[in-house]
């Protein structure tokens, strides 16, 4: 295998750091960019790092910036994105960027669809994939009309997570809001609708460990080149957040749902399909798709299916053999988030200190900490604690 073609990673959160480390340890020269705040926290010794314009609010400036970076390469670099904002930016500007970079994405209309939860669920229903009951709410009058059809508790969530997050103060942002009754629904809807479109969804009961994610890489011919999956154990914030502690675990029933679905919509490139097992009927229900590498990329390496590297090899015309067999039972922990999740659960009487410690036992990898590159972990830890203090 040759590694002479550089890689450019857009994102310096734990996701991007996982991609950087994966490629750098193979001897690939990596450049990593993100907005100033994230760059300051995530800069790593395994890449040439820098700040770049914001993909949402400074799109033209970022496009110019990346074209200038691309002029310095003797060959087109492989480009990878670690966040939905960067994926959307690359897809939207794919013609210009393809003059300087190698990347693989599905059609832009599909990128738009999977980043719009309303359209994503339409795709799932059309493909016959089990889904929680979902309602799109355009105004208060429509909300009143559907209240009689709802079973509480339910979930209120944004249709466009990225747009919603960019409009709202980070102290108020929630990935999903658990609604206990009609009065709370009307109150929360009236408050949050100013920040973006909202949808109401049936709440699937069960613990966080009922959630499974399938990570895939389909090449340009839609041949499956890489697949692995994990089971969530803890999230931050608890119940409706991002992964804080997961374990590598293959679940064939989920794969039988996810792979045909992704193939049917031609989800080429990298993707994550998330499902939750419904204890009421024992079926796995579809949650969402992300058109990129996931937060747990470090576990991808540890369990033997390094999607970032498979992507690099494929984009540099080295036609890697498919890798779909993983090592189960390895944990991935984002320590500071897992600790903060534990604190919230402890206050609610949902977890004890010894239960939390037990969850950390066994073979594991940390999202950010490495002895040869400790500063991203330290800076992230301090940043999380500052954010926690500011919310008091």
From TrEMBL:
<dbReference type="GO" id="GO:0005524">
    <property type="term" value="F:ATP binding"/>
</dbReference>
<dbReference type="InterPro" id="IPR005479">
    <property type="entry name" value="CPAse_ATP-bd"/>
</dbReference>
<dbReference type="Pfam" id="PF02786">
    <property type="entry name" value="CPSase_L_D2"/>
</dbReference>
<dbReference type="InterPro" id="IPR011761">
    <property type="entry name" value="ATP-grasp"/>
</dbReference>
<keyword id="KW-0067">ATP-binding</keyword>
<protein>
    <submittedName>
        <fullName>Carbamoyl-phosphate synthase</fullName>
    </submittedName>
</protein>
<dbReference type="InterPro" id="IPR013815">
    <property type="entry name" value="ATP_grasp_subdomain_1"/>
</dbReference>
<feature type="domain" description="ATP-grasp">
    <location>
        <begin position="121"/>
        <end position="316"/>
    </location>
</feature>
<dbReference type="GO" id="GO:0046872">
    <property type="term" value="F:metal ion binding"/>
</dbReference>
<keyword id="KW-0547">Nucleotide-binding</keyword>
